[in-house]
Design brief:
mainly alpha
């Protein structure tokens, strides 16, 4: 099922409405869709390198807009959907602890999910459920999603098709290592 969805998403990159597909996939991936927009972004930039920056901007803006949609899902549907499930499993008492942690570290959660392979959609919904400040959520989303999509587009713009395999296989790992070092550095500074 996921493979068919992946293949279908990839086929959208070759069509005349590829930018619309890229924006749509980027929007829905930020709140519920399982396939990341990179699947469209990569072949689109390879096919039209002169549009790399436009595609990265489109991907960033629609991803942030989709993230705001996910935020509102978390904000308005938490009580109807999540609370009964948590109550059933006897875990409802963890909600306040989670909200407190998210209030303090939410910006980092959004940033990390925005640039790493961690599902950004999970954090968009959690941000709304935890009541993270919407302006902080949007700013962290713009920064992190922008970094991710502009780096992908930039690598493809400057190095072309040969960099495609590196992006698909190792870029997620590189972003994860970068974030671990960044967060570790800030944590070290806080405790020194």
């Amino acid at each position: 099922m996921i493979r068919r969805l992946y293949d279908w998403t990839l086929s959208l990159a070759a069509g005349p409405r590829a930018p619309t597909a890229l924006g749509s996939v980027s929007f829905v991936e930020s709140s519920f869709f399982p396939i990341p927009p990179d699947i469209l972004l990569i072949p689109m930039v390879i096919a039209r390198r002169e549009k790399a920056w436009w595609y990265a901007l489109l991907c960033t803006l629609t991803s942030v807009a989709g993230g705001v949609f996910g935020y509102f899902i978390g904000m308005f549907l938490f009580e109807q959907v999540a609370q009964p499930v948590l109550a059933f499993y006897g875990k409802l008492h963890y909600v306040e602890e989670f909200r407190h942690i998210f209030a303090e570290w939410g910006w980092w959660f959004v940033f990390i999910a925005g640039v790493t392979p961690f599902p950004y959609k999970v954090i968009t919904v959690a941000s709304g459920a935890a009541g993270l400040s919407l302006p902080i959520f949007i700013l962290a989303s713009i920064v992190s999603r922008g970094i991710r999509f502009f780096i992908v587009a930039g690598l493809l713009f400057f190095f072309g098709p040969p960099i495609k395999d590196f992006i698909e296989k190792r870029l997620g790992l590189m972003f994860t290592v970068f974030v671990v070092l960044l967060v570790g550095g800030f944590a070290a500074l806080k405790f020194i």
